[in-house]
Amino acid sequence: MTQAASQEKHELSPNKMGTQPIGKLLFSMALPMTVSMMFQALYNIVDSYFVSKLELHQDAMNAVSLAFPMQSLLIAFSIGTGVGMSALISRALGEKMEDRARQIAGVGLFLEIVMAAVFSLIGLLFARSYFALQTDNAQIIRYGGDYLSIVMGICFFLYAQVTLERLLQSTGRTDKSMICQLVGAGINIVLDPLFIFGYAGFPRLEVKGAAVATVIGQGIAALVGIFLNLKYNPELSPAFKKIRFNGRIALDIYRIGFPSILMQSIGSAVNFSMNQILIGFTEAATAVYGIYFKLQSFIFMPIFGLNNAMVPIVSYNYGAGHMERVRKTYRLTIAAAVIFMSLGALLFLTIPELLLGIFSPTDEMLSIGVRALRIISLHFPLAGFCIIAGSVCQAIGNPFHSLLISVCRQVVVLLPAAYLFSLTKVLDNVWLAFPLAELVSFILSFLFLRLTIRRAGREVG
Fold first, then answer.
1. What is the rounded CA–CA span in Å between residue 203 and residue 26?
2. Which of 41, 136, 54, 7 lies closest to 360, judged by CA?
3. pTM (2 decimals)?
């Protein structure tokens, strides 16, 4: 069979996102992504586990915790661009417009390269200044500056990995996307102890070693992503020859993706502010807050995997005019997310001491952390609904609904409530801001999801 005939046959073959039964389709796409996200969460925990074994482990944990808002900002721009690019590609494929899908992919790759260069420069120039703004503890500034300057300074690998994974996800090849994440996470886990403690002849780099292991893992995962796209993603592999800027497509990408960027950027600013509130009580509270984010990633990451599997299905079927498949997809996804998040809340409520014990906490950290995990985890089931509902709105063209929800949750409720509760001088009261904010988010998510689906139904007819 000639290459042209093979390509023609491929173009005429129905995409599984428009034909397979929804339950089977969602499960087959979500399973590899959920597994890879679980593995990603595991390596996040392993990263902090080894850091917590250093002699000055509370300072080391604080350095990583205080770096988290800036890392979130770094990731926000990559993920947000990827969300917009992926949704547009899936919709274009649903409309049988493969040339446009490839053009969108080329523009997405260009945008990710530019952003990586900007953040690399920021990290190399301002990493230590960022920590000096938050604390006068010289050890935290040294640890944190070393860590962040590497993670941001060599962020090109992260941006490449995220973009290449999104290209695979947008065509339904989530099993291939999983390979990228597993390779990156696996290498990171193996290299962490070698670089942090200097085992097997490697240099002892302490906290800096965690960053080195991370960027090496990202770099190799990116190389794997290039190979998988070229070999197994024929719809989009020609896009590697079309990496260029197109203003109209860039605007379309950010019309969908900018709310994700802004939401995560707001989250970064809120986390920065929360660290300042908590450090006013004790440095141990800031360390606990960082540990919480590592632990909750093990609960939230699978939901993000499920969510990432749902988005191309919803986008494809919306583009193809199959609204009943859209409804079945998001309803099944919401049910699965709420059940899983409820199980996660149960873990935090029943065994917080065991979870915190992973990170060699001091007695003060353990005392604070047990109560913190139990209070904060009350919002997990509501969060499962909100994550999926917001992404449904994004996938079918109403991204600003999820943006408004995020702003209300974090800026209007969470941060002001945390500050007001901190005035009581009782640390436990600060943690109550999380379930309160999620309750507001749930109400808004429910209303906006109904409005979005009704409007989409009228448009499709």
1. 45
2. 54
3. 0.74
